[in-house]
Structure formats: structure tokens, C-alpha cells
Amino acid sequence: MKQQTLKSSCSFSGIGLHSGKPVEMQLLPAPDDYGIVFQRADLGDEALVHAVVDHVASTRRSTGLAENGIRVRTAEHLLAAFRCLGVDNVLVRLNAEEVPILDGSALPYANALRACGLIEQQADRRYRVVRRHAEYRDSRSGSSIIVDPCRELIVDLTIDFKSELVGKQQACYDSTVDFATQIAPCRTFCFYREVAMLRLFGLIKGGSLDNALVLNDRKQCYMGGKTPLFDNEPARHKLLDLLGDFALAGLPVQGRITAYKPGHKINTLALKQFLSDEVL
Ligand SMILES: [Zn+2]
Asked: What is the mean pLDDT of the chain?
């Protein structure tokens, strides 16, 4: 299998979920072995952030990267789309810090990548292969990420919220799952009871019912009359997040990932640990 990049460029405009600031974003073809690289065009041509786990700078409700003081926020949905749709090399040009949230899912990215088309490059695709069983656990939250060798990427994920509306849900990804229709459309979600606290911490300034599902536990409903696309849409969104976070391995991962109550923090800490232990 050869590496791939975009056949043509495409652009988006929107707002950042947490910053609330407007942003323009372009996805541009890139040469062999370039990887996924962000450019903060508002800070100059050299303001680059390579999408690798060593550059993770924040994991509070999104995954933020920083390299040489240059920051990029909420990269995970876009990264998942690149990795799952076979984009190895791409330059992401932004004119602000945060990737646009759009509708809170990765569907607009998946549609745009399909419309752009992909081209095969000269170099062979390389992988991060899981070599042995390894576990990463957070005893406080009870969350865990376990990896095992496998010839393809398989993710088996479980969420378990103290909520009758969501509760325990599972979602799976493997080569038979069509990312564009089964995972990409699943939207960001939060609980209504968290909204005031998140705003207090300066988060979700751009959040609205247009870009997030808001779950009201007390009334047992999705706010704004929204209905989930799948019974387990929240678990599928967490799967999207994990696929985006694991894209920070720098190369596609080959292995089985079993995740229990995952989040950006444990996803990226586990990935970092596995890479440094040469598990993958
Ligand atoms: Zn997300």
C-alpha cells in the first residue's frame, strides 16, 4: 500500500468550539513522508505544528497541540478523518488557534475528503505495529486502554456514564466498518448539568445545539428536540475521538485497542507510554 495525499485542496470556515472564534481552514496536498502538519498561517509560514503525541499540550474536553509555542486546538475529529480515510500526508492551514467544530462531527471532513479525492504517492505506507500486550489504567477514574497485536486496526470501546440516558454503551471499529457513514457523523456531546461549569472554565464558548448534542439527564432527553443518529451515538463519538487521538502515533496503528471509559487524557497518555515502551 502506497502513501496518499489529497488530489486537490479544500477549505472550511467556522468557529472554534472552545474559543468561539471564527477560523478559516484549508487542507492542502503534501509530499511523501510529510505526515499531518498544521500551519498557523496567522503567525507565519514557519508556524508549524506536527501532529504527533509528543506535542499534546492539553486534553481538557479536546486535544490541543503545541510546538515551539505554536498552538492548535481541537484537532481530534479532523485527525480521525485523515487516518480512517487514508490520508497520510496533508498540510492543514489555519488562520486561528482552533480547528472549526462545524456540526460537531467529522462528517463534513469525510465529505470534503471524498470530494477532493486522494492520490497514491511513491513511498510505501508505514505503520506503528503493536508488538505485545500492554495496559494503561487510571485507578482514579477506572478508565483503561489495552493494546494487543493484530493484523489490522480494531477498536472495541465501552463508555459507562452515571446517566440513565446514556449509561453503558459500546462501539467497535474494524475494516468492515464504513467510517464515513458509521462513525464520522457522530456528534460531540455533553451533559446539560456540565454546561455552567464548562463555561466557568472558559470552555465551549462556541458551543451550541448546532454543534453538540446536549443531554438532559433530569428530563431524560436530548435538548433542542434532537434525536441520536444511532442508539449508541455517544459511544461512537468517543470512538471517533480515540481514533483521532491515536492518529497522533504519527503513522497508522495496526493492533487491537480495547478502551474502557476513554477520554483525551488517557488516550494520549496511553499512546505516549506505548510508544516510549516500544509496545508500538
Ligand atoms: Zn469529540
From this structure: 94
